[in-house]
Amino acid sequence: MKVAHRRSVRRLSAALLAAFALVLAMTSPSAAGGVRGEQADPVQVKPLSVRSVAPMGAKAAELTASARGGQARAARPEGAARTQAARSFHALQLNLCNSGKAKCYAGGRAIYEGGDLIYALAPDLVTLNEICSIDLPNYLQPSLAEAWPGDWTYYVFYPALDKPTGNPITCTNGGTFGNAVLGRVPAAQWQGANGWVGAYSTQDSGNEVRTFACAYAVGDHLSCATHLSANSEPIALAQCKALTFDAVPYIRSQEGISGKTVVGGDFNLEYDTSDPENAQNCVPGGNTRKGDGDVQHVIFSNDFSFVSRSTYGLSYSDHDGLLIRLTKP
After folding, report:
1. Prediction pTM value
2. Which residues are within 8 A (CB) of 199 and not within 5 positions of it... i.e. 6 or more apart?
3. Is 256 left (phi over 0), alpha (psi -120 to 50) or beta?
């Protein structure tokens, strides 16, 4: 009787474990609609409100001038207006090193330099790393709105987290430290925007929990920004795969979209075919990657067509600005 009883208990325990595993599989982002790559790391994704800003007109220029202490902004390069009218979609990747705690910190001047580059280039999308939450309303979003005074702009920010406490990491300027997506949509095409954010399941031994932020400009494009592990290339690659193979397909399934997707960030991975931790290894089929020759990359779905790539040296950050020019159908 005792032996039979133990066998019954073991069978019941096995059944319970199997049921528990099934529940986990059914509630994971991949099972909910993602198409996870073989080595992708499961990642939890949750919705987050997007800050949407109606066309600002001249108000944007007033805000940016006030932030500069009344100093006039440098004029946009000659011919930029004609280029804007003719082009389809430009994505700008920036790491602005503004936590106040890293060696590259330059007293907040990187935000003004980055905002001025946003204004000069007038991109449709900006993926941002190492910024602070208050940098967006104070300068970065008004800079994009000044470049596109008649269009809607939007942004979503998500902080990196302190591993011991689970709280957002703070900047010395009083904001929280993390990643953001900042974009614009022509007024005639604006249908609102939805945000999605998350933290990676696999983290390195440091105290910073790496995260990502995504925004879907309804009917126009989906974009994500992330900053991956700086301490371990294998972990950075696992995080990259979790975003591109797992989280992005899940978000696309939830939003009911199939294309026009851009992921940008500081991946802390180089494009090197001799290295197992090659940035190209986290590019899903049907997508293309372009980088700055170092660790920043932009991955875009192939319904965009690649036109050209430019880098812009920044005086107050240890990373260049990376502009990817695309066209879309």
Report:
1. 0.87
2. 43, 44, 161, 209, 210, 211
3. left
